């Protein structure tokens, strides 16, 4: 009996040893790499704005990884896949499909309305969250998709805010309107036109150019003969700068009104002294009015060696908002991130972010700027 007991004891001890060795030889749960897509024009006329957006998102990713992120008990490393849609709708849809195929968990972008809108259907079909930091055309969130969110006020708010400022503060009575034939430019110009007419401003003409134009003299010569108090231009700074410059060269005294596409620091170098004749609107608070705007500007400057442009704070917050959704969902599953997004209540650089049922930001603000000494200068804020 003693021999049998000894054999059984050593057999049990061996089994425990084998089990223990097996336990310690099992691989630890691997860290998870989670890819977030970012899409903006990195080439073309507004590439500097697209790169600025990407930089904002990259800064957030770097900070989050440095601090350490744990979701569902697993260490998560974020990876930003920055893509270039060149402000082209067709390219945008190709990039969107590429990101879906790469199994990104969410997308920050696209930058423009003309690319965000066509890409949105692809993300919707895949069930992937799309957060645009800067697409302002109302259509973006009016298509019935549950995946679209935006962090700025729409043209349905920006256009009226600019028209209201022109009427109340600038005493504009007559205006000529020109747009660049893009979804953004046309949309902003149309919203401005509706609001201007409702305020009693006479629209003397409506003309269209394109987003690759360099010579606006024919349109501007016609407008000069109409003698409006102001000219509203719906487009980007790459064309808005030459537009303002050529207007001044032709002796057109009317103020140039425009939206966020034109409202960049670069406008001064594109328009020269004529920039001082521009009044422009920008969805969202001015960095000077943002809760953490001044600190963010300094942080951005230190990291990238250049000043931020317009929407870097919004792409930065967009990444943090997506991570907030992951934490609340306790998952990096795209479907669970999407389910958590509507309940977002996040306080970041740009202020508090909450979404309405369509995915638009609640309580958006519109900032008004002008240029003094060829430097972009904040003058007013309209709370929507």
TrEMBL record:
Domain of life of the organism encoding this protein: Bacteria
Biological-process GO terms, alphabetical: amino acid transport
N-terminal signal peptide: 1-30
CDD domains reported for this sequence: PBP1_ABC_LIVBP-like
Residue intervals of the Leucine-binding protein domain: 34-359
SUPFAM superfamilies according to UniProt: Periplasmic binding protein-like I
Key word Transcription regulation present: no
InterPro entries: Leu-bd, Leu_Ile_Val-bd, Peripla_BP_I
Keywords: Amino-acid transport, Receptor, Signal, Transport
Annotated Gene3D superfamilies: 3.40.50.2300
Protein family per UniProt: Belongs to the leucine-binding protein family.
Name assigned to this protein: Extracellular ligand-binding receptor
Phylogenetic placement of the source organism: Bacteria, Pseudomonadati, Pseudomonadota, Betaproteobacteria, Burkholderiales
């Amino acid at each position: 009996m003693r021999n049998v007991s000894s054999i059984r004891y050593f057999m049990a001890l061996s089994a425990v040893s084998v089990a223990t060795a097996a336990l310690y030889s099992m691989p630890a749960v691997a860290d998870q790499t989670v890819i977030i897509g970012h899409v903006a024009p990195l080439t073309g006329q507004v590439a500097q704005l697209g790169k600025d957006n990407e930089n904002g998102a990259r800064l957030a990713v770097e900070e989050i990884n440095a601090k350490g992120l744990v979701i569902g008990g697993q260490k998560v490393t974020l990876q930003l896949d920055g893509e270039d849609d060149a402000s082209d709708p067709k390219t945008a849809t190709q990039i969107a499909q590429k990101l879906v195929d790469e199994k990104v968990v969410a997308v920050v972008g696209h930058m423009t309305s003309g690319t965000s809108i066509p890409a949105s259907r692809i993300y919707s079909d895949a069930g992937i969250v799309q957060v645009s930091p800067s697409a302002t055309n109302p259509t973006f969130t009016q298509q019935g998709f549950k995946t679209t969110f935006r962090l700025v006020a729409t043209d349905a708010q920006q256009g009226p805010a600019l028209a209201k400022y022109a009427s109340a503060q600038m005493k504009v009575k007559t205006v000529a309107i020109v747009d660049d034939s893009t979804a953004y430019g046309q949309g902003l110009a149309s919203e401005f036109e509706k609001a201007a007419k409702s305020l009693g401003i006479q629209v003397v003409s409506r003309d269209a150019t394109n987003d690759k134009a360099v010579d606006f003299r024919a349109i501007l010569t016609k407008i000069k003969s109409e003698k409006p108090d102001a000219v509203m231009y719906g487009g980007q700074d790459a064309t808005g700068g030459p537009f303002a410059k050529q207007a001044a060269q032709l002796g057109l005294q009317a103020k140039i009104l425009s939206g966020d596409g034109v409202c960049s620091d670069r406008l001064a170098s594109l328009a020269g002294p004529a920039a001082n004749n521009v009044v422009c609107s920008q969805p969202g608070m001015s960095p000077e009015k943002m809760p953490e705007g001044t600190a963010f500007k300094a942080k951005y400057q230190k990291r990238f060696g250049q000043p931020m442009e317009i929407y870097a704070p919004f792409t930065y917050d967009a990444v943090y908002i997506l991570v907030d959704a992951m934490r609340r969902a306790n998952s990096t599953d795209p479907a669970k991130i999407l389910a958590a997004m509507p309940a977002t209540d996040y306080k970041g650089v740009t202020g508090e972010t909450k979404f309405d049922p369509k995915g638009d930001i609640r309580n958006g603000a519109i900032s008004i700027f002008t240029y003094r000494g060829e430097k972009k200068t904040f003058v007013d804020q309209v709370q929507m």
